[in-house]
Design a protein that fits this description.
About 45% of the residues lie in helices and about 15% in strands. It has 9 helices and 5 strands. Helix 2 crosses helix 6 and helix 7 packs across helix 9.
């Protein structure tokens, strides 16, 4: 019998969410949050909701509050690590599944929970297959618009806060503010950096498989050989 089986499972559930999936610059971040039974109303009154409905400043403030009294996990995959994993997996949904599974497993190291909720993306078998021994026993629920659940909303806040912090750190490293998203402004910034540094700078600060890379390199007048192949999964 495993040690965790000697203890009564905690009443509550885990919620997971990611940030940075559609952002060219910066990491991909997945966060998990354990919501004990009876705490949903408390967090709702605190202002916890889907991070897309909050300002960056509010996200950072709420993340600090959530970290003070709750069990959570943040899995940050920096651009270089992200690009390495993507080259091997060749599928964004598999990479996301790996991140969600790690966040769940990390929380299960701290609390004996029996249920986890995550947003539906791709084939639901991806997350199940990525879970390790402890995670295999959990009741994993995947559904669309999962961010309406308070645990998932809290996870979205933690993930976005980590993304914002790491994007700021990367901006300081390159001496230029890296915009969020995958807009024309992002392409202009990328072009400036390629001209200032070298094409390989993109592999250190951005998700190289995005179509954005091809547009940046073409604008900079570089060889088409440097332009990445079309990715599977999300294609910004």
């Amino acid at each position: 019998m495993e040690q965790t089986e000697l203890f009564t499972p905690e009443k509550g559930h885990i919620g997971t969410d990611e940030s940075g999936k559609g952002d060219y610059f910066g990491p991909l971040v997945v966060a998990g949050f354990f919501l004990p039974d009876g705490q949903a109303e408390v967090l709702t009154e605190l202002g916890v909701k889907d991070c897309k409905k909050l300002s960056d400043r509010r996200v950072l403030g709420l993340a600090a509050e959530l970290k003070k009294g709750y069990i959570f996990s943040v899995v940050a995959i920096g651009p270089e690590r992200y690009n390495d994993l993507y080259d091997r997996l060749r599928n964004l949904n598999r990479l996301l599944a790996w991140g969600h599974a790690r966040a769940i497993e990390n929380i299960l190291e701290k609390v004996n929970c029996q249920e986890a909720l995550t947003d539906q993306f791709g084939d639901e078998k991806f997350v199940r297959q990525a879970l390790l021994k402890k995670g295999k026993k959990i009741n994993l629920i995947q559904k669309t618009q999962a961010e309406t659940d308070v645990a998932v909303a809290a996870a979205s806040i933690l993930a976005r806060a980590e993304f914002l912090w790491r994007l700021r750190e990367l901006s300081l490293q390159v001496g230029l503010e890296l915009p969020k998203g995958a807009s024309p402004q992002v392409e202009e910034t990328g072009s400036q950096l390629v001209k200032k540094c070298a094409p390989d700078i993109l592999g250190k600060i951005a998700k190289y498989h995005f179509k954005t890379t091809g547009r940046i390199l073409k604008t900079a007048g570089l060889s088409a050989e440097l332009i990445p192949d079309e990715p599977e999964g999300k294609k910004p």
